[in-house]
Each structure stands twice: as C-alpha cells, then as structure tokens.
Write a structure and sequence with these properties.
Two copies of one chain form a homodimer. Chain A is α/β, with parallel strands linked by helices and 569 residues long. The first copy, chain A, folds into five domains: 5-89, Rossmann fold (3-Layer(aba) Sandwich); 118-181, 2-Layer Sandwich (Dna Ligase, domain 1); 185-390, D-amino Acid Aminotransferase, Chain A, domain 1; 399-525, 3-Layer(aba) Sandwich (Rossmann fold), CATH 3.40.50; 534-566. Chain A contains 19 helices and 22 strands. In chain A, the strands form four sheets. An eight-stranded antiparallel beta sheet of chain A has the order 14-13-10-11-12-15-17-16. A five-stranded parallel beta sheet of chain A has the order 3-2-1-4-5, sandwiched between helices. At the A-B interface, helix 1, helix 11, strand 16, helix 16 and strand 22 of A face helix 1, helix 11, strand 16, helix 16 and strand 22 of B. Chains A, B: Its EC number is 4.1.1.21. Chains A, B: Pathway: Purine metabolism; IMP biosynthesis via de novo pathway; 5-amino-1-(5-phospho-D-ribosyl)imidazole-4-carboxylate from 5-amino-1-(5-phospho-D-ribosyl)imidazole (carboxylase route): step 1/1. Chains A, B: In the C-terminal section; belongs to the AIR carboxylase family. Class I subfamily. Chains A, B: Residues 106-295 form the ATP-grasp domain.
Chain lengths: 569, 569
C-alpha cells in the first residue's frame, strides 16, 4: 500500500480505479489531459497533463511511479518496454502488445488450446481476398481491424458477396485486417478475471447485451444459464487469461453458441465495462481487485462472489449535451438505483457518460426495478437498432414444480395460481421417477446449479418422486401427495413423508398444492423481505375473509347461510 | 444535481460525502485546511483553505455555493445565521445551534415528548451544586459539558461523592455544564435518520459498542434485538429528528435500558460514525442520503434497507505513526473486508484514521470474519479498558426449536446435533399449544421480528403445536411428529400434516428430528451459498459412508456382517 501507481489514461475506468485506491490510501498518478475524469477525484500535484501516447510523458510518469498500469490498451508498448527496465509494468508490456493486435491475441489463445473463432489475417485485402476468406471461414463472416478497434469501431459484418464492396470501403484502407468466422451465438457472456502473483481468480459469469456494438446492459449472474455453463465460462476465462504474462484484471468476453459451446470473443487487459457491476455487487470490486493484484496485496475467492443479483445499464450520450444528467435525474426516482456519472462534461452522442447499477434480493426484482429505466433509454433512441436480446427475458425460475405424470397437473394448478399470485417465477416439468429415472435424477441434480431455490414435487401411490428428487439435490423439496384412483391417498402421504434419516422431504397433506406453494413462498421470504411482507399481507387478507364469513353467518343464521353459500358447492 | 454544495469542515465525513457526490457529478466546495481528508478526493479550484470557524472564509464559501452544510457541528452559527439570507443552509442554523448545546438539545426533545435522560443545567458548579444535582437525578450521574464535547471528551462520570473533586478539576473551569441521570443501559443503539423536504425516513437500528467513550464497533442490525424494539428505536429516532428544522441526515444515539425502554442519548446534525456501514450495506449510503435530502433529490424507504448484515470496526491511531496502515495491511488478509482509510497522514493515538466494514449473508458469518481483526485491535491496545459489551455475543439464532413438553426433548436431540454440526445458531423453547396457548401464540408471532428464519416444532398425539405456530408466523414451520406412549405416531403425523389450505406445515416422519434439522439447513442454504456448500459436502460424506458399508458387506458376506455390525444394535 506504500507503492505509487501510475496509470496511462484517465477516463472513467481510471476514475473508478482511483475511487478504490483512495479507500486504501494508495497514491495514483494519471497521465492524461488536464481535468480528465479520473483526475477530478484525485487531488495532488503528481498527475501529468498530456497524451498517454507521448513517450516523454510516459517516461515522466514512470519516474514518479512504482508500478505503471493502463486503463486503455491502445498505448505505445515500445515505451512500456523501455520503462520496464526501471519500473514495474503491469500487466506485462508483451501482454498488452499481443492483445492490442486482435489477430495475434487469438493466435496466442489458439496455441494454448483455448476455444476461439477461426480467424484469417488479411493484409489490405481485395474483393478476391474476401471471396477466399469467405470460402475458408464461411459466410457471413466478420471483417475486423486487428488494432485500435473498440465499441464496434473497426468491425464490419460481411453477410453476402454484396457486402464486399462496402466492407472494403469502410475498412479497406487498413492493412491490418482479419476475417473471423461468424459466431451464431445464443448470448454473450463475460467474466472478469484477476491474475495475481500466484493465482488466477474470477468474478461470476455475466450476460452482456450490446446495442450497435456498444455494451448496453450487464446481468449478473447471466440469466437462464446453468451453474455448469457458468463454471465452464469462468474456467475458460481463467484458462485464457493464464496465457498472458503479468498481473491485473482482464475482461474476457465470450459467446455462448446455440449448441452450448463457449468461444472467446476478445480480451481486455484492464478493468472492463462488463465488470462495473462488481462495485456494488461483490465484496471487492474489479477496480480494487486490479490494485490488489498489481500491488501484491491479498485477494480471496470469496471477495469476488456475488452478494446479490445485479443489473448494470450504461448511460450513453444522447442528443443534447446534458442528456446523461437528465437520465440520471430520472433514474434517481427509482429505488435501489446507484448512479455513476463520470464527470466527462458535455455529452457526445453514444459516448459512455455514466452507468447505473441495481442490486436486489432476486434477479426478477432487479429486472422489475430497472425496466422503466431501460424503457426511458429506448424511448430516447427510437432510431437505435435494438438488439433482439435486449428484450426482457423470462425471469430465472426460482421454484421447479415437478410431477410424475401429467395426470397430476390438475392437483397442482391451485398451487401454481398461488405462485403466480406472489409473482414467483417458476417452471413446471414432468420428471417421472419410474418411467424416466435418469431424466428425473439429472433434472434434480442440476436444479441448484440452474438457479432454482426449491422444488415442489407431486406424486401419488408409490409416490417416489419427492424423495428421489430430494436424494439428488441440496435444495428443499416439498412433497404433495396425490390421491390415487384407489384409496384415500394416505399411502401417497406416508410414502412421501417417511423418508430415511438423512434425506428430508417437507410433506403437506393430500392434494394440498396450495400449502406446498405457500410453503415455497415462506421459504423464499426467509431472505427476501419484500416477499415476506407480501406473505404477511396474504395472512391478513385471509384472516379478513374468514372474519367476514363469520359476521355473515352470525347475521344470517346458520340455516340461511348454508342455503345461500354452501348450496352452490 | 446542478447545485453546488459548500461544506464547513473537510474531515473523513466530508471525504465520504464527496465520494458520494462525485458519483452524481455534484460539485462540493470544502472549507478546511490545505490538503484535508475530503479535499484529497475532490480536485478543483473552488475549495477554500482556512478554518471553518473563520467568518470571512465561511462568507467566501457561501458566495460560491448554493447549499451550505456541515460535517461537524462545532461551527459558528452566528455566521450561518448571517449567510442564510443569501444561501440555503442545511440543516437550519437554529437546529445546529440547539444541538451544539447538549442541554438545550435535550430540553427541546423533552418539550416535544421525546424520551431523554433527566438533565440539570449547572453553571460553573461547586461541590455543593453537585451534591444537590446528585439528590435530584441520583448517583451515579454523568457530568457533561454542554458544548464542544465529542468522543467522550467533556464527559465525567460521577459515581460517588469522592468523584466530585476530580470531576470539578476536570470540567469545573467550564461554565456550561449539566448533570445527566445515569442510564443503566443494556446496550447502545443508533439510527441514522434522513429528513427530506417532505419526509422523515430512517436507516435500520444498529448496535454500537464504545470503548473509552469512542465508537469502536457497529453491528447492523443490532444483535439480539427484536424487530419490535428495532421499529420502536426507528420511530423514536424519527420523532426526535422531526423536532428539528431543516434537511439532511442526523445520527441518533440512544440507550436500550434494562427494562426495555428506549432513551435518546444524543443527536448529531450530520452523517455519523454509526452510519459508515451504510456505504456497503444499504442501497443508498448515509452520505448520498444527506446529499439527496439537502438537494431535494428523490429518496425511497427501500433505499435505506439493509442488503446484508454488516459490522463496522473503527481504525484508531495506535502507538506508531503508521499503525493504521499496518492494521489495514492485516485486514486485507481477511475475506469480504472493505477498508476505508481517510488520508489523514500520520496517526495520533486514538484518532479516527479509518474503518473497515464486513458484510456477509448472516450476522454470525460476519462475526466470524471480523473476530480476528477485533482481536488484533485489542492486542495492540492491551491497556484499553475493554468494555464488557465488546465481548462477542451469542449469535442471533436463525432457527427456533420448540416443543409442547420437555418430554419431547430426547426426540429433538439428534436434530439439535445436526444444527450444531452445521454451526447454525438456534434457540430451544417449550411453548405448549394447549397449556400455554397465549405464550405459544406470542412466541410464534414475534419469531420473524426476532430475526429467526424458520421454526422446527415437535408434538405428539393431538400434535397441534406445529400448525398453531404456522398460524401465527410467516416463517416456514417444520413439524416433527412425536410417537406418543399409545400408538405408532401416525396420529401425530396426520395431525401435523393435514393442515387446512392456507396454512402450511412442512411435515417429516415420526421422531425424525434429523430430517427436520436437515430441512432447515436446506432452507437456509437457499440464500447462503456457504451453507449450501456445506450441505453438499454432507451429502457426499453420507454417500461415502453407505458405499463403505456396501463394500464391507460384499467383502464379509451377509452372515458375518450381520454378526459384527448388527449384533450391537
């Protein structure tokens, strides 16, 4: 903590970095223009005014700093190579140099066996070259600049031969291009990885939604993605970052393909837009993690865990110079909303001016809170080509309702109505313990990693489903005995309830799916105060209803009451 | 958000205030010495170097600012009164003037019917005056300076007549003293209150632990305090703050007396040490809440709710100038630990140099994480008179295990062993549905507000306890049927399970308290990933045990196995 950090660049990433550094009394010197975003929140005389591409200025910064790092990768790595003799440069200048060239970046990853899209280098290509490339990697393909490309700049999608001419017109002047195989992805994921002296750690897997190739939204954790894919994505991201020398955080963007495979899209050797959410959502933010990594300070796996589901929405410049401030004023009207403005002055159309983060006990609560703010952004940009994936998704189900046979469904319907009444996202499935034993086992085993919180299982007769599900999951299982065609259902009840010591099932009475659902609501309310409040309101309402009946009965007398109210039944 | 805020004082409270302001692009001008703590994180030319007691400097600040506020109440309110003609001063200068004089502060509260300790003004008292005061309010009493007192400075406890002379020696030169009735408190609580243009809102009730009259620890929420007391404390705090004019946050410190009554101790008209935890633990911090209040920006009740239990530990200056940085280096070794250093340079003994905050899914987890850091602090200050209440408390129970009769206890013991195995804080009580119906009802009704998360209820025969408990609480209730003297327990099981629609009980099999406890573990694991990991380990371990038995059985043959292993039973 006694070391001074020098940073090339002083934009919003530098600003959030120094906000973390201020907490630790770590001095940070920025090299950037006068009152740039980062310098505004760090008041001392050792910042350097100038361009982070100016060799002399970088030398000056190095002379004042024990560790030099970057908040943008488009730096002069020759100078970094020079100053590395006298100062610690993190991550290694070779890493920055390799990553700067997206084609080399991918070649390096490929040589380490990391899954990436097939790529072909193209040096000032002609239409003919594009035709060849199209044969090699297939059409559509993505024509990309190897260097200085970000936020979609330097990329051109080539869908058919008709796109060759416009593609060459847009990027043809550039010698350093490459063609990348089109990734037919289901969604885009991102993982922030921290490379310390000894370890490679990772933050959770998040879902990113881009609009016009600029990051718009980040959902942490990624919605509708199993813990298995989540872990695979983190492993892939750690494996990719382990290929590079040096310390610090790395932003790893990847594609989840339609077939479930994961592919690295690209890597940033610095804090990243897709990691902003960590400021509120994790015990240690990506910015503090970067500092801890480059300064050899301790960092723990648990520091990078998610405290609560979070959604980040970027604030981009709109049509007026104060559009971002107007949006912020609007956002303040919403609960649980944390605003970050970057101090960049007047807005330019599409420029990143700030972001907001909403954390809540459940993702569906966070989605509900942020939706009006997404709507506000979308209204302000009617001409924007809204990406299909920006549409609200179905919420991550919290409760799985399973049955052995569709004949049990009518018994479960009153319970499903209760789940709907309490706005609990749920999924309803048929997983028979006897006719689909493997499917039943795999479904129950994966339930926890799918983000489910509890299982309601209905079964009649032998009624093995609830107990078998409980044997395969650490989640609480609620068993609903179904009355079979023969007998009163006591057999179902006892079969569900009489589990051996070690594997519990929460049993309710025969056909009572309402109580099963209410039990699930009570369980979710243990950690979600809003849910508990709604349950308490339900209890009051339910008491009121019975008291009204009592009043009516007293007023009408038993005989008339039975005629009017019970005759119907 | 377009208004400029001027702040008298630029210490750590100002620093954390401007950290919040930076996020909203709200410009803050500080009046304080050169590179004071707050100015270090706010880089512009409109700060004013000087004393916040200097009338001219305050005038200058006012001329540059749309709203003037304070981060310390020991300011010159005559000047605030003057500038109030040209600038908005928040909170109102009258409020600051009244609060500055602790005796007047209490008189005002008293006149509004707010519970405070009995107080007597003493103007340059003699031993005789103290004797009279002792008769009026009783001995021991607290002799206090009316003004300029903080962190225990200006307070002198007068326990017996022997303390008169030393008390007068310590404070006697001061004309403005008062005697305060001794508060025999069970614990000290604090609530941060936000007074906006229209509303009086409050953060949660926290527990504060003082050492040598300086705040050492804050526990949010207060441990072992019912939601009822929690709400009462918030109501009292809001009522107290409503007595004062103006907008902003107020720190309200109070005593919870042995008899359960609440008494205001004192009020600070600004952000407060006991509210630092809000930075990590609430959607909006006390600092941002102060800004939103004085700038008439929106604020919502839910913004002030607790996201996770949190503990704050102050970092006080030790014996060496870098003691606080050494402590911070030590604290970094612990997971989930957020460090705040204030940039105050070299430490002075006992000076507030920073603080740490630990948030975790449960209070007992937060306590486990922070304990070594408390131990480190205590080791470094062996001569400190450690307050008895700084000792770790029994953890907030998460599970209540209740039974109708102590004869059910043996059935519950294996379940209690499971709760202990999983380190789940729990409480065991006798609440008979038939012999103590009122007590049973009041216990179950209060359970949620006591911080309990679920109830395990055992009963035999008529076995009404689980269902009756469920009727009184929104928490999940797990019913354990106990085998009665007559019959096999099926009667107990059906009585517990067959609840009417609307009131669920999670029923396990007869005498199976192990499954009841495991069900509670699964429920807690829904929102506590650490608990779920431990449960998964338990499942693996349990599978391993059975597999070992199977191997042994296969090796030994059935006959020999039965002889060796089953004969004992």
């Amino acid at each position: 903590m006694d070391k001074t950090v020098g940073v090339l660049g002083g934009g919003q990433l530098g600003r959030m970095l120094v906000e973390a550094a201020n907490l630790l009394e770590v001095k940070v010197n920025f090299l950037d223009a006068g009152r740039s975003s980062a310098k505004q929140v760090s008041n001392h005389d050792d910042h350097i005014d100038g361009s982070f591409k100016d060799p002399e200025a970088v030398q000056k910064l190095a002379a004042k700093s024990d560790v030099v790092t970057i908040e943008i990768e488009h730096v002069n790595t020759e100078i970094l190579e020079q100053i590395a003799d006298q100062t610690d440069v993190q991550p290694h200048w070779k890493t920055i140099r390799t990553i700067q060239d997206k084609y080399l970046q991918k070649e390096l990853l490929k040589s380490h066996g990391v899954a990436i899209a097939q790529s072909l280098p193209l040096d000032a290509p002609t239409a003919e070259d594009l035709e060849k490339a199209g044969k090699a990697v297939g059409l559509p393909l993505m024509l990309k600049s190897r260097k200085e490309a970000y936020d979609g700049k330097g990329n051109f999608p080539v869908r058919t031969k008709d796109d060759f001419a416009p593609a060459l017109e847009a990027l043809g002047g550039n010698k350093n291009l490459y063609a990348e195989k089109w990734a037919n992805f289901r969604m885009e994921l991102a993982v922030m990885v921290v490379k310390t002296k000894e370890q490679v750690l990772s933050f959770p897997t998040v879902e990113t939604i881009h609009e016009n190739s600029i990051c718009k939204l980040t959902y942490a954790p990624a919605r509708g993605v199993s813990d298995t894919v989540n872990s695979q994505a983190q492993e892939l991201a750690r494996k990719a970052v382990a290929c590079f020398d040096g310390k610090g955080v790395f932003g790893v963007e990847m594609f989840l393909l339609q077939d479930g495979a994961l592919l690295i899209n690209e890597i940033a050797p610095r804090p990243h837009n897709s990691g902003h959410y960590t400021i509120e959502a994790c015990p240690v933010s990506q910015y503090e993690a970067h500092l801890r990594a480059i300064l050899d300070l301790p960092l723990h796996t648990e520091d990078l865990e998610l405290r609560e589901p979070a959604i980040m929405l970027n604030i981009l410049g709109g049509d007026t110079p104060d559009s971002h401030r107007k949006f912020a004023a609007e956002a303040l009207k919403h609960r649980r909303t944390r605003i970050h403005l970057y101090g960049k002055g007047q807005a330019r159309k599409g420029r990143k001016m700030g972001h907001i983060t909403v954390c809540a006990p459940t993702m569906s609560e966070a989605e509900t809170i942020i939706q009006p703010m997404i709507d506000y952004v979308d209204q302000a940009n009617p001409q924007s080509t809204r990406s299909a994936s920006a549409q609200p998704k179905e919420s991550q189900p919290l409760v799985a309702v399973v049955m052995g046979s569709d004949s049990d469904l009518p018994v479960l319907q009153p319970g499903l109505a209760i789940l709907n009444k309490f706005h609990i996202p749920h999924t309803v499935r048929i997983t028979s313990a006897h006719r689909t034993p493997t499917w039943m086992a795999s479904y129950a085993s994966a339930a926890a990693s799918q983000g489910l919180k509890c299982i309601i299982a209905a079964a009649g007769g032998a009624a093995h489903l609830p107990g078998m599900a409980a044997a395969h999951t650490p989640l609480p299982v609620i068993g609903v005995p179904v009355k079979p065609t023969i007998g009163d259902g006591l057999d179902s009840l006892l079969s569900i309830c009489n589990m051996p010591k070690g594997v519990p099932v929460a049993t309710v009475s025969v056909n009572n799916s309402i109580n099963a659902a209410l039990l699930a609501v009570r369980m979710l309310g243990m950690s979600d105060p809003g849910m508990r409040r709604r349950y308490e309101e339900y209890m009051v309402e339910s008491e009121r209803e019975v008291r009204e009946k009592d009043t009516r009965l007293a007023e009408m007398g038993a005989e008339r009451y039975a005629e009017v109210y019970l005759a119907k039944k």
